[in-house]
Please model this.
Amino acid sequence: MDRFQEMRAFVAVVDRGSFVRAAEALALSKTAVSRLVGDLEARLGTRLLHRTTRRLSLTPEGEVFHDRCRQLLDGVAEAEAELGAHAGEAIGQLRVNVPVSFGLLHLAPLWPAFMALHPKVMLDVTLSDRIVDLVDEGYDLAVRIARLRASSLVSRRLASTRLILCASPQYLGRHGAPAHPSELARHAVISYALLAMGERWEFEGPDGPVGVEVVPRMRSNSGDTCCAAAVQHQGIVLQPSFLVAPHLASGALVELLPQYRSIELGVYAVYPSRKHLTTKVRALVDFLVDAFRMRAWPA
Model:
């Protein structure tokens, strides 16, 4: 018996709560649906459903298998839709992973415009600073801010940002401004825990590269949290321009040691493969490239 039919029958029974209603939905007899589910359990060598005269319930194995079957069936339906009458039209669920601060500040305002352009796309946007595995975790696309290494993933550069050293005028009034990166070792530093270079901050100065080991007064995995502490005069931060630009513009923070530039990072749209790229992913990539042609923060 066809495995696809077995999974369809199993999901229909679970979703509708009975073999009778599943049979009606699938236009099959109750006996045929029962046989399909029984054949599935026999092939897997495990019970998926608890059956009583009053109700059906999933076994622990059944719960896991139901979730996987639902994903597979939804994927088949989505693939058929894209290759059918709507060929060339963006349609279906689009799972996107984006960094938290960048996602809130610079991507959240864009999603409504994308949705208006592509009303048949269902956006599923996850905000996380963790580097996800796009293939294993089922994401169609991610936005990453990094110096990308060679990988099997495909990327399109959207913009660039650099790390800027800054502090509030009140903090500098109390503690003085560093004249050289080496002086950061004796200042209160607010460190971003996910910074790739860790707590050895690197700069390129007039006489070449400079590195300094900082001792954090505070450490956080949230850039917004780091900036909030700096704005409240608690120390010096090294944060990307896309995040600190509004604070610099308002005067809440001032840039330190501008002659010593820290690393520049690219903002990329990353996706698993250029081959057989779906219409919905291509639409989002093109939309983001257009949206970031005019960068909203200083590099």
About this structure: DSSP finds ten helices and 13 strands in the chain. The domain at 3-83 is CATH 1.10.10.10 (Arc Repressor Mutant, subunit A). Residues 60-83 form the longest helix (24 residues).
